[in-house]
Amino acid sequence: MNIFKRLFKIGEANAHSAIDSLEDPIKLTEQGIRDMKKDLDASLHSLAEVKAMAIRSRNEHQSYLNKVKDYESKAVALLNRAERGDMSVDEADRLASQALVKKKENEEHAQRSQADRERFDKSVAQLEANVRELRHNISKWENELKTLRARVKVSTATKKLNKQLAQIDSSSTVAMLERMKDKAAQEEALAESYGEIANESKSVDDEIDKALKDSPASQASDDLAALKARLNRNKGTDL
């Protein structure tokens, strides 16, 4: 009975527990099943012993009934012999009376063995009911254990997958690309900042020279000077 109460508590706790805590109910259920199997072995042993006593009392009862009939037959046979004159009436009556005494003793033994037989048969019926209930409960909890193990496998696999997905979410390629974009934007901003600093560091003369160099008149003057120089070189070559 304690086992049933414990298993009921296990089932009750299991119904309200989280999936992560299913390992302990499995171990408790396994232990409960082992305990029930021990009880089943003990019940089967007791059943065999009580059945043996029931069989023995049944055989004894039948043996006593046979003796009752036998002594009664002997008493009748003795009286018949006396009636036929094969033996004296007194001797026949004495022996017949002894046979009837034996008959009475065996009737009492038969009644006692009958009571023993009924008591043992009742115990056998009770033990057989206990054995059936234990076997039923063992089968029930073994099936429950299979279900619990399957749930643990599914929950473990789901937890592992969810954990992997969670890790991907925090350090995934997408997150890495976002960080790279931030870094590129930072580098671009830094380059632009250096450019502005370089422009700010130019002197007034540099700005004037740049302005003159970029003017169209200055460019034309430079081109003319270059052409004259080239022509003078050609003349020298012709000479």
Structure description:
- Residues 110-158 form a coiled coil.
- Pfam families: PspA_IM30.
- InterPro entries: PspA_VIPP1.
- The protein is mostly helical.
- 92% of the residues lie in helices and 0% in strands.
- It is built from six helices and no strands.
- It has helices spanning 2-16, 23-84, 89-171, 173-200, 204-213, 216-238.
- 10% of the residues are buried.
Can I get a quick summary?
The protein has helices at 2-16, 23-84, 89-171, 173-200, 204-213, 216-238.
Helical proportion, percent range: over 70%
Structural class: mainly alpha
Regions with little confidence, pLDDT below 50 for 5+ residues:
none
Which series of helices and strands comes N to C? HHHHHH
Number of strands: 0
Q: Indicate the radius of gyration in whole angstroms.
A: 58 Å
Number of H- or I-type helical stretches: 6
* Euclidean distance between termini CA atoms: 134 Å
Overall 3D geometry?
rod-shaped
Mean pLDDT: 82
Major sheet size, sense and barrel closure: none
Beta-strand share of residues? under 5%
Q: Layout of helices and strands, plus pairs?
A:
Layout: H1 2-16, H2 23-84, H3 89-171, H4 173-200, H5 204-213, H6 216-238
Helix pairs in contact: 1-2, 2-3, 3-4
